[in-house]
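Quick start: read one record
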Amino acid sequence: MSEQRFHRPFGGQGPGGQGPSGYDPGPGGYREGRSSGLHRFLGGSPGAVLVRLVFLSLLVGAGMAMLGVTPGLLFAQAYDTIQSLLTLGFETFHDAGRWFVAGAVVVVPLWLLSRVFARSR
């Protein structure tokens, strides 16, 4: 009777080292034989994953239709965003290059003068 109180219903070891139905799952547990590479990659059985993807696609498509967003518009906006970020980045490098040259025109001669006068001491 005390053995039944400590029975683990979700795949744990039951009394005598066996699973809940008396089946000895072995060292890897119940799912060791059924877990394939495809099953692990998909995150479940292919049928269940397909049903989930169809349902989520319908929900997202309905939401996009309500907002007036189309896939073409999404890709065009993503392209424009990436293009503007790249343009901004290149403009920043161009500005930084001009700042570097302007600073070097002042700093390098001052540094050379300081080295010449420090050597003469």
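The chain has four helices and no strands.
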